[in-house]
Amino acid sequence: MPDVTNISDADAPLEQENHAALPGSELEGPASKVGALFQIVYFLANLATNAILLPIIIFLIPHQIQILDAANHVTSLGIVESIGGIFYLISAPLAGALSDRSTSRLGRRRFWMLIHMLCASAAIVLLANAPAVWMLILGWSLLQFFGGALLTVVQTIIPDQVPVRQRGMISAYAGLAIPLAAVLGGVVVAVVFKNTPLASYYVFLIFLIIAVLLLFAILKDRVLPREKQEPFQLGSFLRRFWVDPRQHPDFAWGLITRLLLFLGYYAVSTYLQYFIQDGIHYTRLFPGKQAIQGTLQVQSIMTVMILICSFTAGIISDKIGRRKPVVIASALVIAVALFVPAISPTWTAVMIFAVLLGAGYGGYLAVDTALITQVLPSANDRAKDLGIINLALSIPLIVSPLIAAGLVNSLGYPALFAVAGILAALGGILVMRIKSVR
């Protein structure tokens, strides 16, 4: 792994401030760099957690809805995705707060990793055997809740275990896991099990169990002593979820910028398969092929670009000690990518869209994650605060499909891509309002 040792002037004081806020040595921040084994296993855990979310909503649930409710597939997909998003909205901050308070002998993160993994596994089995759309809604809602909770706990391991000077690279691993999960999941669904795609659910299930158990085995998770934990009071527990934007403006701007970008991104990604099917008419362009194969091709191109750009952006950001310029540039590239199909809804435009979106998204995922870990208000509540930041992911999961369905049904797919591009551009420009990180 590259030796990344450059720390910006903005990084070091924040790290010291967070460490000073901790109640005892049991919660002290990371002092040394993480090794190759940790990096590999952490990447696999991120890959597995995203593999139970992204391929399912990109490939499997649209496929199941086409079978169960073909006449209303656009509206039904929006309903399934939006209701599931409500459960993700609840799960992320709640899971983070519970994890922060946990005094389990297994550690604050390891205990909840196991609980969320087991519950998510049960939801996958339910989805695999769903006989109607209402069962898809139930299964996806449960998977969003426990899968989102698991993702929050796994993300918290970065500020727990990784020093600031190494977070750009480790965040790149976490960022790469997102598109790679979509592509590898698409290969499993559209190639390996193309005749029986629902069998893919069990592949994702097995991978999740193995990856989480590996991380559980190697993670040196600190145990919070019971005497360090305040007695539980519902009122004070709920009040902890409020982060005053006047006291922590950079945290608020981090949330807003992510929210805007992902509102646009999820609106497009949710309906990508239907755009290729209904907007591009893929099966007419390529007789004998299905839209799901075109979607896989787009995801594959994106992943290659994300692989290149995420690590490049992460290394550059760590070396120069700056996050904001990389995040802003990446968001603007995403915006340009989204405008391409809006201007020219053709297969050639889709290929250009895939290249640009992969490049921008790769840089954004790698460096924005590192930026966010540097604006967390308190080291005592890292998981809870990351759960709140993840509202920027969960709110779009609720709102974006409804906006997208309305735009597609009334104005068509070009309007969907144009609105998404505007939102992404705003999300990038407003990163300049963050002051404590360079």
From TrEMBL:
The chain crosses the membrane at residues 40-62, 74-99, 111-128, 134-158, 170-193, 199-219, 255-276, 296-316, 325-343, 349-367, 388-407, 413-432. Keywords: Membrane, Transmembrane, Transmembrane helix. It is a multi-pass membrane protein. Its main location: membrane. The keyword Transmembrane applies. PROSITE patterns: MFS, SUGAR_TRANSPORT_1. The keyword Transmembrane helix applies. PANTHER family: MAJOR FACILITATOR SUPERFAMILY (MFS) PROFILE DOMAIN-CONTAINING PROTEIN, PTHR23528. This is MFS transporter.
